[in-house]
Amino acid sequence: MEKSVDSQNTQQSMYAEDEGVDLKGFFLNIWKGKLIIAMVTIIFTGLSVALALSLPNIYKAEALLFPAENGKGDGGLAALAGQFGGLASMAGIDLGAGSSDKSALAIEVLKSRKFTSEFIERHNILLDLMAAESWSYEVNAIAYDEDIYDTKTNSWVRDVEFPFKPKPSLQEAYKEFKEIVYINSSKDTGMITISVEHISPYIAQQWVLWLIEDINKEMKERDVAEAIKSTEFLKQQIETTKVSDIKTVLFQLIEEQAKTIMFAEVRDEYVFKTIDPALVPEERVSPKRALICIVGALFGILIGILIILGKNYFREQESV
Known about the structure:
The chain is α+β, with helices and mostly antiparallel strands. It is built from 10 helices and 9 strands. It folds into 2 domains: 84 residues, no CATH class; 229 residues. Strand 4 and strand 5 form a beta hairpin. Helix 4 crosses helix 8, helix 5 packs across helix 7 and helix 8 packs antiparallel against helix 9.
């Protein structure tokens, strides 16, 4: 029994010694190859510095919004919704819709392909979206990628394969637009943040302002068109019914639609009220040049160590 214990202790001691020797040998090999590691690290650090300097500055403009009140009398509408919700639905009237529902719908409209495509065409931003390469702080001017857009002939010159064309399609523009526009809604406070990233801080700010203006206008026009259509339907129902109580309710529904139209006409911030407007950002949000250089240096050290270990491994294999 004692021999067995002694044998176990001896084996553990030998294993510990071998482990210590291996660890010592590992660091010794690393030390011997320090020049290779240093050279590889310098190369990768230089490449990461070059990459960091070649990337353009990206600026982010953002605005803080809050859902605007819908402006309808909740008490009267609630009573009408309980008694004549079906009739109102036939007329296309949503008596139970609140400002939160309207803002949620507005956010989805804002993210939609149709709204984005119309936004790009309306403000003629395709060039700044798809071909902008750099921005000059001194003259506040955009330089465009000559491989994409020829500023001398004012023509798109992209070299692309079918089905794409030199001039980017609205589908391509929509995908690119989604990458630089961020819409976040807080469940706790109800606040909405709209932000845009671009190489030009002035363009980033302008696009945020346009987005807010356009979505308010879009939702206003939708509600006004719906109210007019509903009013026409209700008037037709008044002419055909002979029950005085139903006529009274129909007149009340028409009155609510008139309130909707009046409310839309007097308010520019129809669905979103601006709490903190977008400003021209002074500091960039990317690239993180210091981080890129640090990651490049660490990656160089790792590659250098792997090279040393690989050389030692093949040397040992040849000697076997």
